[in-house]
TrEMBL record:
Species this chain originates from: Xylaria flabelliformis
A single GO molecular function term of this UniProt record: oxidoreductase activity, acting on CH-OH group of donors
Pfam family, one: GMC_oxred_N
InterPro entries linked: CBD, CBD_sf, Cellobiose_DH-like_cyt, FAD/NAD-bd_sf, GMC_Oxidoreductase_CD, GMC_OxRdtase_N, GMC_OxRtase_C
Family: Belongs to the GMC oxidoreductase family.
Gene3D superfamilies found in the cross-reference section: Cellobiose dehydrogenase, cytochrome domain, Cholesterol Oxidase, domain 2, FAD/NAD(P)-binding domain
Name of protein: CBM1 domain-containing protein
GO biological process, one term: carbohydrate metabolic process
Signal peptide: 1-24
Record has Signal as a keyword: yes
Keywords: FAD, Flavoprotein, Signal
GO annotation, cellular component aspect: extracellular region
Domain CBM1: residue ranges: 808-846
Length: 875
């Protein structure tokens, strides 16, 4: 799970503005005329908590952003604007910084940060490819100031922003369109001042702690103005701060490249790439079968068990880190730097354990229909039964995570479950009756054990690591696989952290295999960088820094990698009830309740043994669409406000639309070699939308007799239709972090127009020893949070891969490739499989071809058998 706890956006309450009731996702501007310059802006106001505004879409001190646009901007896309940015400082010495995202989300967008310094307001353009510290923007955006004000409570700046409505960071591009009549914008705010403040492009910052959100911004006729050019001419001040004599021409702050260690010698029967939900179990199973296995993880250790060290002061001196304590799991949303992946625009853990190190630990025994509906023969629920029982015998999970067997702060659970029960929904123990997912509710099952996170890192990785034929590398990222045609000989690695390995590590000659388990974005990226994917994406890789060393396009394997992207669509609803009791898990990090800490450290009991932010009940609904498809809904209730409703008595109930949804998105790669969700997989289909609406109505009906319960979102005076239709559809606010599907498993070979990237053995089409085993292979979404399903799929894949005949080299004259070819791609020495044409794209294993190509290059390979091979020329 889950959505972004605490900061999910509902446009309706953002900035307490009126919302236009159309799908334009817009919020009405307030016109502001600056008295000094006469410039008129459309502005949007983030409400000030100190003046009574509540909730997470507000900020201490309030914040305003506005734009003035060229006269024709509402019909022709503008390339520049005049901006007004006013941000709070709550200290007598000015502190803080604030930021605007010109596309809404933090990632993939031009970011502008501003902060007060010595009576000036300094600014810096930034860009983030992941949920980590943004880099300095290297494109040609230009900011000149018209005026600025700085006083004890606030700082503001009016500026001309040229080339600010489209952006390009090392080839990753995007834009905002003024002719669309509305913008989607994002804001963030921070209390502490930047470190090293004199030079804006060199400041050091930590994650914003005074709120962030996205909002729709309607542009009305006041936004575009005939006086624009006169106003723009006032922008004469270039305010650079002091950057040591030079002007602040944007240059990427060179983050020192990690120092790597050359790959040690040795080959492996299996190289598994990525130690998350998919990678850890399969590495264990293969090593259990006696294979020599190398598991390569990009990130650093997370859990204390594996040498991780991060955590609050109160875990220092114990064997625990922030990753081990269930009550600290949502810290990822407040402090993600160095933990989240920097090369994908979605939240993902790039640490040992992957998602299983940073997630909330929800752990579901699969609903058999999920396999039967989504997967082909060989992966039906009956096929998965063995794997399921193996996984649940190793990681049984629990719905009473506190070791004393008690459940803490259950008031919210009781309110909602009481309402559901009296409306006839059935109370079940979810993992005892996994197929009861229609009008049922339950306590939340977690993978936790012994009051700690547990999961694959505490089970499968422990047994694997005890074997001498298993090796784990951390801090090492796989760049690509090395291959000749469809046969992989090894992987190229680089250091992601200091001490990581650099170079090429090979698999055992002839029989070795490579398994990609780098996650729905990570595995797709490795495939694309290895010349496996859609033509347009391989061309992007070709145009990147990878280009010169990328495998030649005659060897590209064209598969629909990145298509079929899916995630649960998240729609947040909020109620308040006087008996709900909130617990501040974020505060437990820095300023914990000592009794709670002692109960946890001494007995692994109490509220901190429960996942933040007090998750439950979980409940389920099935809705049949007009298209005849039954769509599955999972609801997660948690004790927390969101979408503008304060913590306290609030519960957020997140609706996840899963199995049966037909909308799909697409993940693509940028020239900067980061991955992006270029098409969101949410609500493109009207029956998907209808299910979301019906699900909320069903819930409202079920809770209607709960005394003192107040619906906040949707508010009582808003129809569910309007609520759903007016909510922004962005990955920022609608994601569930359950990304799947980018290397779909199936029988319809993607090389010949099908949709599948891997076959029923998880083997990549067009290769003889490359596999994908992680969330990527799921054809469609499941009912619940998916990690247990992914671990089960990994167990199942191990069975199937171990049952395959070992790869073998072909004799001379055998076919070793070609469109639709499914056999071996390797030839017995000294022959090499060679390309001939696309249809017959590899000619028979013949030494002659090797010699012929070699002869063209300056260095001729071994001349042994040259005469003989020349004799065999037939074409
Ligand atoms: C914040 C959050 C909360 C979640 N909560 C839950 C929940 O409560 N319950 C649930 O069931 N699911 C939850 N999920 C989803 C679940 O964690 C993921 O679906 C699951 O972990 C995906 O498994 P995976 O093996 O595909 O990828 P991951 O678990 O992400 O593992 C991929 C691994 O590969 C590594 N990697 C990537 N690229 C490379 C490379 N080039 N070289 C080497 N290594 C690489 C990564 O560092 C990572 O460790 C949550 C997800 C998030 C982000
Ligand atoms: C150390 C630096 C930073 C870190 C680690 C960080 C991390 C994050 C995280 C985890 C979120 C929450 C995602 C969510 O709401 O779902 C977020 C949201 C956001 N951030 Fe940052 N951030 C940083 C700096 C910045 C800067 C400098 C800006 C702008 C100048 C910015 C703009 C935003 C915006 C607008 C959002 C809300 C949109 C969204 O939800 O994606 N961030 N950030
Ligand atoms: C600003 O105010 C907030 C909320 O009152 C407080 O938590 C924070 O510490 C203050 N910061 C500074 C720098 O004064
Ligand atoms: C500081 O500036 C803000 C915005 O310009 C203004 O609203 C506020 O009144 C000023 N405060 C003081 C103390 O001058
Ligand atoms: C910490 O130590 C306890 C007690 O020995 C053990 O049960 C637990 O598994 C350990 N946890 C980690 C994360 O190492």
């Amino acid at each position: 799970m889950m959505g972004r706890f605490g900061f999910l956006v509902s446009l309706l309450l953002t900035a307490s503005l009126n919302v236009q009731l159309c799908l334009g996702q817009s919020s009405t501007p307030t016109v502001y005329k600056d008295s000094k310059t006469g410039i008129t802006f459309d502005t949007w106001i983030v409400p000030d908590k100190r003046t009574g505004a509540s909730g997470t879409a507000s900020t201490w001190g309030g914040m305003t952003f506005g734009v003035a646009l060229p006269q024709n901007a509402l019909t022709t896309d503008a390339t520049e604007f005049i901006g007004y940015l006013q941000c709070p400082s709550n200290s007598t010495t000015l502190t803080g910084w604030c930021g605007i995202s010109l596309a809404g989300p933090m990632t993939n967008s031009l970011l502008l940060m501003a902060y007060p310094y010595q009576n000036q307001v300094l600014t810096s353009f930034r860009y983030a490819t992941g949920y980590d510290n943004p880099e300095v923007y290297t494109g040609d955006a230009k900011l000149t100031q018209i005026s600025s004000t700085v006083n004890s409570t606030s700082y503001s700046v009016i500026f001309r922003c040229q080339n600010c409505l489209s952006w390009n960071q090392g080839g990753a591009t995007g834009h905002a369109s003024t002719s669309a009549g509305s913008l989607v914008l994002g804001w963030c705010n921070a209390f502490p001042s930047p470190g090293n403040p004199s030079c804006p492009d060199k400041v050091s910052i930590v994650q914003h702690d005074n709120g962030q959100s996205i909002f729709g911004a309607a542009l009305d006729s006041n936004a575009a103005n005939p006086s624009y050019s006169q106003w723009a001419a006032k922008a004469t001040a270039t305010v650079t701060g002091n950057c040591g004599g030079t002007t602040s021409t944007p240059t990427t702050t060179p983050t020192a490249a990690p120092t790597g260690v050359p790959v040690p010698s040795g080959t492996y029967d299996y190289i598994v790439v990525g130690a998350g939900a998919g990678g850890i179990p399969i590495a264990d199973k293969l090593s259990e079968a006696g294979k020599k296995v190398l598991l390569i993880e990009k990130g650093p250790p997370s859990s204390g068990r594996w040498g991780g060290t991060l955590g609050p002061d109160w875990v220092k001196g114990t064997n625990l880190t922030r990753f081990d304590v269930p009550g600290l799991c949502n810290e990822i949303w407040e402090d993600s730097a160095g933990i989240s992946c920097t090369d994908t625009d979605q939240m993902a853990g790039c640490v040992l354990g992957g998602g299983t190190a940073i997630n909330a630990g929800l752990w579901w025994k699969p609903y058999t229909l999920d396999w039967d509906y989504n997967f082909p023969t060989g992966w039906k629920s009956t096929d998965m039964a063995g794997a399921t029982s193996r996984v649940f015998s190793r990681i049984p999970g629990t719905d009473t995570p506190s070791k004393d067997g008690l459940r803490y702060l259950q008031q919210g659970f009781d309110v909602i479950s009481g309402g559901l029960a009296s409306a006839g929904w059935k109370n079940v123990t979810a993992n005892s009756v996994p197929d009861q997912k229609n009008h049922t509710f339950s306590h939340t099952p977690f993978m936790f054990s012994n009051g700690e996170r547990g999961g694959p890192m505490a089970t499968y990785l422990v047994t694997a690591n005890a074997r001498s034929n298993f090796k784990l590398w951390t801090g090492t990222a796989v760049k690509r696989v090395i291959r000749t045609g469809g046969h992989i000989t090894g992987v190229e690695v680089e250091a992601y952290r200091n001490g990581g390995y650099v170079g090429v590590v090979n698999v055992t000659a002839t029989t070795g295999r490579v398994i990609l388990s780098a996650g729905a974005f990570g595995s797709a990226k490795v495939l694309m960088r290895s010349g496996i994917g859609p033509q347009d994406q391989l061309e992007v890789v070709k145009s990147s820094t990878d280009g010169p060393t990328m495998i030649s396009n005659s060897s590209w394997i064209k598969l629909p990698v990145g298509y079929n992207l899916d995630d649960h669509v998240n729609t947040d609803t909020v109620i308040t009830h006087p008996s709900v009791v909130f617990y501040d898990f974020y505060e437990a990090y820095d300023d914990p309740n000592i009794t709670d800490v002692n109960l946890y450290l001494n007995k692994r009991s109490g509220i901190l043994a429960q996942a933040a932010p007090n998750i439950g009940p979980m409940f389920f609904d099935e809705i049949k669409g007009a298209d005849g498809i039954v769509r599955q809904i999972e609801w997660t209730a948690r004790v927390e406000g969101s979408g503008g409703v304060d913590n306290g008595n609030a519960m957020t109930m997140s609706q996840y639309l899963g199995r049966g949804a037909v909308s799909r998105g697409r993940m693509t790669i940028t020239k900067a070699l980061s991955t992006v969700v270029s098409t969101v997989p949410y609500l493109q289909d009207k029956n998907d939308v209808a299910a979301v609406i019906q699900g909320i109505k069903n819930l409202q009906a079920a809770l209607k007799n709960v005394k003192n319960l107040t619906w906040q979102l949707p508010p009582a005076n808003t129809t569910v239709e309007d609520f759903v239709n007016n909510m922004v559809v962005s990955y920022s606010n609608r994601r569930a972090n359950h990304w799947i599907g980018t290397s779909k498993l199936g029988t319809d070979d993607g090389r010949s127009g099908g949709t599948a990237v891997v076959d029923v053995n998880t083997q990549v089409y067009g290769t003889d020893n490359l596999f994908v085993v992680d969330a990527s292979i799921f054809p469609g979404h499941v009912t619940t949070n998916p990690s247990a399903y992914i671990v089960i799929a990994s167990e199942r894949a191990a069975e199937r891969i171990l049952a395959l005949a070992p790869p073998k080299a072909l004799a001379q004259f055998a076919q070793c490739g070609g469109t639709g070819y499914t056999g071996s791609f390797q030839c017995a020495a000294p022959y090499t499989c060679q390309y001939q044409n696309d249809y017959y794209w590899q000619v028979p294993c013949r030494y002659v071809m090797l010699m012929r190509i070699a002869a063209k290059s300056t260095k001729i390979a071994t001349a042994k058998n040259a005469d003989e091979s020349v004799d065999t020329v037939r074409d």
